[in-house]
Amino acid sequence: MNTIVAPCVDDTAPAELLKRGERLLEPDVYRTCLNGQPAVVKDYTRYRGTPLSPIARLLVRREARILQRLSGWKHAPALLGTIGGLALGMEFIPGQSLSAAQSVGIEVFEQLQYALTRLHAAGITHNDLHGTNVMVSGGVPVLVDFTSAWRSPRWLPVHPVSRQLRRSDMKNLLKMRQRLTGERPSASEAAQVADPRWVAGVRAAWKRFYRRFKGHA
Ligand SMILES: Nc1ncnc2c1ncn2[C@@H]1O[C@H](COP(=O)(O)OP(=O)(O)OP(=O)(O)O)[C@@H](O)[C@H]1O
Ligand SMILES: [Mg+2]
């Protein structure tokens, strides 16, 4: 882990900006080549020497650790390494994101559902599952952006919060499926993602508090 990858020295492959980090602790994301391999770099180096640098390093380390755990899995990009602690290099996934795709077959969602089940079985939740974080490459869905992902230690029994995070991943997936294929969740899927009473209670209490807070502000 924490392999230092030499920056690409291939002049013929200039970096192409995929997304400029504008909000707090958002990385610049660009496509480049690392050691001759097409790569994507998530780059937080603008935080070097600032008070936010330790947090940015932590984000890089966490995402790298998750990608390392998932190495060899076709539904996540391979980790290529970290660069100076503030940037992360990973395999470039050619294709389109789900949000850019014109039409997506139901079989992509079948694979995605299976992939998500496997991810959860490995104790990992993605926690930011939306169209721009799923690339479809040659008909295979590939999850990207594991910045918010969480891995529960294997020895820990499944915690209600982890269960809630899994439900929330699945809920996001079903929403994307409905939007892109028109297929509504089946009765058993709807039951699987329904909030338990304690979550509904916490949510309602939060809404009440927030409304009152806004009323006084
Ligand atoms: N390995 C990859 N291969 C191809 N494209 C990628 C890869 N990783 C990221 N991208 C593209 O770059 C975009 C931004 O990357 P990423 O989602 O990791 O950053 P982010 O700052 O967390 O973005 P957001 O806040 O929009 O989710 C992705 O939505 C995706 O389109
Ligand atoms: Mg993203």
TrEMBL record:
Where the record annotates domain RIO-type, the positions are: 53-183
Gene3D superfamilies reported in the protein's UniProt record: Phosphorylase Kinase, domain 1 (3.30.200.20), Transferase(Phosphotransferase) domain 1 (1.10.510.10)
What InterPro entries does this protein map onto? Kinase-like_dom_sf, Meiotic_Drive_Suppr_Kinase, RIO_dom
SUPFAM superfamilies named among the record's database cross-references? Protein kinase-like (PK-like)
EC numbers, comma separated: 2.7.11.1
- Alphabetical keyword list: ATP-binding, Kinase, Nucleotide-binding, Serine/threonine-protein kinase, Transferase
Q: Which GO terms describe its molecular function?
A: ATP binding; protein serine/threonine kinase activity
- Its catalytic activity? L-threonyl-[protein] + ATP = O-phospho-L-threonyl-[protein] + ADP + H(+); L-seryl-[protein] + ATP = O-phospho-L-seryl-[protein] + ADP + H(+)
Name of the molecule in the record: non-specific serine/threonine protein kinase
Q: Which organism is it from?
A: Stenotrophomonas rhizophila
Its taxonomic placement starts with: Bacteria, Pseudomonadati, Pseudomonadota, Gammaproteobacteria, Lysobacterales
